[in-house]
Design a protein that fits this description.
heterodimer, A: 74 residues, mainly alpha, 0% strand, B: 251 residues, 78% helix
Amino acid sequence: MTAVKTVLAELLGLFIDDGALALAAIALIAAVSAAVRWAGLPGLGGGLLILLGCLLILAESLARAARARRRGGG
Amino acid sequence: MTSTTAILSTVTASFLGSFVEVVEAFTIILAVGLSQSWRPAFIGTAAALAVLAVLVLLLGPLLELVPIEALQFAIGTLLILFGLRWLRKAILRAAGLIPLRDEARAFAAETDQLRRRSAERRADWLAGVAAFKAVLLEGVEVVFIVIAVGAGRGLIGYASLGAAAACLLVLIIGLAVHRPLSRVPENTLKFAVGLLLTSFGVFWTGEGLGADWPGADLSLLGILAVVAAVSFAAVRLLRPPAGAPVREVAP
C-alpha cells in the first residue's frame, strides 16, 4: 500500500511541483477553452492567450520563490 | 503532413528529456550494482522495463481511439504542467536560487543506504526494489515524454527513436566510465527540455482549441523563441549578487 502511495505521489509530482503554478495553469487553460467554445474567441487568439498566460504564471511563481529565498536569507 | 521541423523538434525533445531521466535511473542502478550486487540491479531493471512495456502496449492502442484534437488538447495541457515544472526548477537552479542536482551525491546517498542495509537478510530484495523503483519512475517519465511529444502529430515512432538513442548513449557512456555521469550538464539539458515541452504544450493546446498557427509547424520555433527569451531574462533578473549564499527554497 505504501509503495502504491509512493508511486502515485511520484506520478502526481511529475506534473505538480509548485501547486499554485499548476492550479493557475489549469485555470488559465479552462478559462481560455471556455472563451473559445462559448464566447467566440478565435482559436489562434486562444493559443496566444495561453502562451502569454503561461509566461505570466511562470514569472509569478519564480518571483514568489525568489521572495521566499530573500525572506529565508534575512 | 509531417514537416522536418516537427520531426526534428520531436526527436530532439524526446532525446534530451529521456537522456536526463535515464542518467538519473542509471545512477541508482549503478549504486545497487556496485554496493550490493549486479543480480538485483539487473532483475529490478528488467522487471521495471517489463512493466513499462505493458504500459506502452496498453496505452498505444487506447491513444488511437481518441480524436486527434482532444488528444492534442489533453496532452498539450499535461505538457504545459510538466514543462513549466521543469522550466521553473531549471531557471531557479540556473539563477543560483536552489542547488544543482549532483549525480555523485545521489549515488553516494543511495550507496550509503544500501550498505547500511547489506547485513539484512532481505538486502538483495531491497536493492532490487530500489533499482525497480528508479527505472519504473524515471521510465514512466520517458514514456510520458515520448507519448506527449509524439502523439499529437502521429510521430511516436520518431519520439521513440529519440528516447532509444538517449538510452543507448547513456548505456555506452556508463559502460565506458563505470561511475555516475556527474559531468553531464543536467540543468542545461533540463532547461532545454523545459523550454521544448512548454512550447509543445502551448502549441498543441492551441491546436486542440482550433488555432491555425501562422507558418503551421514553424510557429513552434516562434513559441520556443518567446519562451526562451522570457526564461533567460528571468535567470538574469533572479540571479543574486556575486557572493550571496545558495540555499534551498520551498517548492
